[in-house]
Amino acid sequence: MPNLGVPELLIIALVLVLLFGAKKLPEMARGVGRSLRIFKSETAKLRDEDETTHTAQAQTPSSAYPQPAQPQPQVIQGTPVPSAEEQARQLEEQAARLRASAAAQADKRV
């Protein structure tokens, strides 16, 4: 890519001002800056997670086929947490009840 000099940069800036207007350019620059900061922080988090994963794997003895840990149901005040399937079923039942009550209210209004 050829080097951009001052005249080329001025032409690009003029075209941007003409396309977007002088009021929109600072807002766009702020938006780009925010998105770059978010992108950098997310990539840093991914890098940190990778490093912790690699160090954890290096510290634990490796077997030929490591078995994933089975999650244990948590007990809160003597009641076990329902499985994902049970939670989904409960949410579907709750949604059906809400739809039925909304339909009944709509019938009363008509």
Automatic annotation (TrEMBL):
Please, which domain of life does this record's source organism belong to?
Bacteria
Pfam families attached here? TatA_B_E
Query: Transmembrane helix as a keyword?
Result: yes
Main location as per UniProt: membrane
Q: Which UniProt keywords apply?
A: Cell membrane, Membrane, Protein transport, Translocation, Transmembrane, Transmembrane helix, Transport
Keyword Membrane tagged:
yes
Compositional bias, Low complexity, is annotated for: 56-67, 97-110
Residues in the signal sequence: none
Q: Region entry Disordered: which residue ranges? A: 46-110
Segments spanning the bilayer are none
InterPro entries xrefs: TatA/B/E, TatA/E
Residue ranges with Basic and acidic residues bias? 86-96
What is the membrane topology here?
A: Single-pass membrane protein
Localized where? Cell membrane
Function text = Part of the twin-arginine translocation (Tat) system that transports large folded proteins containing a characteristic twin-arginine motif in their signal peptide across membranes. TatA could form the protein-conducting channel of the Tat system.
Q: Which PANTHER family match?
A: SEC-INDEPENDENT PROTEIN TRANSLOCASE PROTEIN TATA
Q: How does it assemble?
A: The Tat system comprises two distinct complexes: a TatABC complex, containing multiple copies of TatA, TatB and TatC subunits, and a separate TatA complex, containing only TatA subunits. Substrates initially bind to the TatABC complex, which probably triggers association of the separate TatA complex to form the active translocon.
Q: Which family does it belong to?
A: Belongs to the TatA/E family.
This chain's protein is named Sec-independent protein translocase protein TatA
Source organism (scientific name): Nonomuraea purpurea
